[in-house]
Automatic annotation (TrEMBL):
Organism: Dillenia turbinata
A GO biological process held by the record: SREBP signaling pathway
This protein's name: Band 7 domain
Xref: Pfam families: Band_7
Compartments (UniProt record): Endoplasmic reticulum membrane
């Protein structure tokens, strides 16, 4: 029942299952795989082309038109072996292949290293300088003239060979002691001056900036002698320094002693001046007191003299005969002795005689005063 329900479906299915009745289908194109293979081939071809150019460029550079001038250089050209005056700046440039030869010439600062330079000293000792560094520069405006006269390897003539010559000249005129120790610090400057002098005269485009020379190698036995000598010199220097320290300490102690003595002297001087000032003050005080005493005594003497003088003047006025007679009588009256007898003692004079005597005395005193 179910198999007969859809006779069309059943017949169609049987026709399709039979290979004789299958409908042919159109082939579908595969775009993705073919495009991928083509792109890889192109990229590989380009890569191999660049690799070939890179490896073949050094071999074919003389035959190429395009070339590069590095930074810090200028391009110099030779045509048929003759140097051209044309110089090019850094960058890509063009030239005639085969006919024109190109060389980059450095115009910035460069260092030339000269190694193993033997020389003999004045005393006949052979020494060797391991390396000498020469810092130099070729000025751009002198490139053509320098290349014309000395070629691309101009530094071999004026630096490498010249260093050998100057070092030998220097060693031959100095002893090992001078080269190795005494004037070793001057060799750099002397070499620089010697190189620059000849370059200025014959190759003015070459500028010597500096020269650095390492310590030379000397025979081991002589080197040991120098080391021993340096040890002895070090000992001497140590002894000298110790002596200087001792002298400084002694000088410091001396200065301290002098300073202390000067301080004591200053103190003593100040104390002495203080005592002198005190003594001077006492002396002045005593002088003032003496003057005061003299003035006081003089004043007392003057007063006493004045008193005595006035008393004398007063006595002169008092010494009259009458006054003297009165005093005589008073003296007799005051006498407590009583005399008994027929005669009175001789001391009793007649009052008149006594008065005449006293008048004569007063008169004589006045005459003497005049």
């Amino acid at each position: 029942m179910d198999s007969n329900a859809n006779p069309e479906r059943s017949s169609t299915t049987s026709m399709n299952s039979n290979p004789q009745f299958r409908t042919p289908r159109a082939p579908q194109p595969h775009h993705g795989s073919a495009a991928g293979i083509g792109d890889i081939s192109v990229a590989l071809t380009i890569f191999l082309g660049f690799v070939a150019i890179i490896f073949a460029y050094p071999l074919l550079s003389g035959y190429s038109i395009l070339h590069q001038v590095p930074e810090g250089h200028v391009g110099a050209y030779w045509r048929g072996g003759a140097l051209l005056e044309t110089l090019t700046n850094p960058g890509f440039r063009l030239k005639l292949p085969v006919l024109t030869h190109f060389e980059p010439i450095q115009v910035t600062i460069q260092t030339d290293l000269v190694k193993d330079i033997p020389c003999g000293t004045k005393g006949g000792v052979m020494i060797t300088f391991d390396k000498i560094e020469v810092v130099n520069r070729l000025r751009k405006e002198y490139v053509y003239e320098t290349l014309l006269n000395y070629g691309v390897n101009y530094d071999k003539t004026w630096i490498y060979d010249k260093i050998h010559h100057e070092i030998n000249q220097f060693c031959s005129s100095h002893t090992l002691q001078q080269v190795y120790i005494d004037i070793f610090d001057q060799i750099d400057e002397k070499m620089k001056e010697a190189l620059q002098h000849d370059c200025t005269r014959y190759a003015p485009g070459i500028e010597i900036i500096s020269v650095r020379i390492t310590k030379p190698n000397i025979p081991p036995s002589i080197k040991r002698n120098f080391e021993q000598m340096e040890e002895e010199r070090t000992k001497v220097l140590i002894a000298v320094e110790r002596q200087k320290v001792a002298e400084k300490e002694s000088e410091t102690a001396k200065k301290m002693a002098i300073s202390e003595a000067e301080k004591n002297a200053q103190v003593s001087k100040i104390l002495m001046e203080q005592k002198l000032m005190e003594k001077d003050s006492e002396r002045k005080q005593e002088e003032i007191e003496n003057l005061m005493y003299i003035a006081r005594e003089k004043s007392l003497a003057d007063a006493n003299f004045y008193k005595v003088t006035k008393e004398a003047e007063a006595n002169k006025l008092k010494l009259t005969p009458q006054y003297l007679e009165l005093k005589f009588i008073e003296a007799i009256a005051n006498n407590s002795k009583i005399f008994f007898g027929n005669k009175v003692p001789n001391m009793v004079f007649d009052q008149r005689l006594l008065g005449n005597f006293l008048q004569d005395v007063v008169r004589n005193g006045v005459t003497d005063a005049k």
